[in-house]
Amino acid sequence: MTLSQDKKTEDVFLLKRLRNGDEVAFEVIFKRYYASMVLFALNYLHDKDRTESIVQDVFVKFWEKRFALEISSLQGYLVVSVRNRCHNELKRQGVVRGYEKSVEPDASVWPQYPDRESAEQINRVIEELPPRRKMIFKMSRIEGLKYKEIAEKLAISPKTVEVQMGKALKYLREKLLPLKKQLLNS
């Protein structure tokens, strides 16, 4: 049995004990995963105090929900929980604030619309994009940010921004083709 398999087997045993209210099992889990979860959260937030607070909150919720948890991978559960809390914190801090709302385009980075109805149709198609892709698209095309700036703000790679923008533009081209034909014929 490998070290990784031993750890997974031990995690299963600890989870069983935890479901029975065993505080020692919780303490072992906390000591085993706390530091790595803080390091993981730092990739998102870059604020040690805030990441420690978020990871502590995740462990508190973990303890509170111990009787109802159906977990196949302890580490996987903790990683997803911490990641989700980091995303929520980024939204709370305003990194994402406003991007989910319809934003009036800035003429300096967005072409002028022939009419209000066309603008509304374009905005409706933009709103259909998946949330993360929509946010990246608006940061690029409405705010006029460079891919590198977007990547830094969202703590992702510039290549991820590039790929998401490519997918967004392809989707918009496909969905807005009838509008484009209509505008060219008018």
**Into which percentage range does the β-strand content fall?**
under 5%
* Uncertain residue ranges: 95-114
- DSSP summary, beta strand count: 0
Q: What percent of the residues sit in helical stretches (DSSP H or I)?
A: over 70%
CATH topology tier name of the largest domain: Rna Polymerase Sigma Factor, Chain: A
The main β sheet shows up as:
none
Q: In sequence order, what are the helices and strands, one letter per element?
A: HHHHHHHH
Indicate the radius of gyration in whole angstroms. 22 Å
The CATH class of the largest domain is identified as Mainly Alpha
Structural class: mainly alpha
Distance between the termini: 72 Å
Query: Which of globular, elongated, flat, extended, rod-shaped describes the shape?
Result: elongated
